[in-house]
Amino acid sequence: MALSLHHLVIDAHDLPALARFWCRVLEWQVLSEKEREVIIGPSAEAGTGICFMPGTDAKSVKNRLHFDLAPDDQEAEVARLLALGARRLDIGQGEGRSWVVLQDPEGNEFCVLKPRRNLIAFAD
């Protein structure tokens, strides 16, 4: 049986605002916007997208799932994301790590990695 990842679903308080933040981060577009669901992706034909659904619970602990973003230039990308509304977050990662921890406007953590060649190796 063939199986693929279709959507990653994120609970949000302000679906349109959070969806638009992530569209700017990923340079994606809003594909569908309904009262209780906003879907974003690189295109309607893409294999995987993100779906924002209403969430009523207040965030109280670190997310169990988060994005790791791999830019060509970590420092420039962190600056761009901060300008878009991300905030730095200290979760005890310490100095000298190969990633920078940020949070989106609703407090969801994500990491900006140093450049990578593939899923397991850093770029030289």
Automatic annotation (TrEMBL):
Coiled coil: none annotated. Pfam families: Glyoxalase_6. InterPro entries: Glyas_Bleomycin-R_OHBP_Dase, Glyoxalase_6, VOC_core. Residues 4-115 form the VOC domain. This is VOC family protein. It comes from Streptomyces diacarni. The lineage of its organism: Bacteria, Bacillati, Actinomycetota, Actinomycetes, Kitasatosporales.
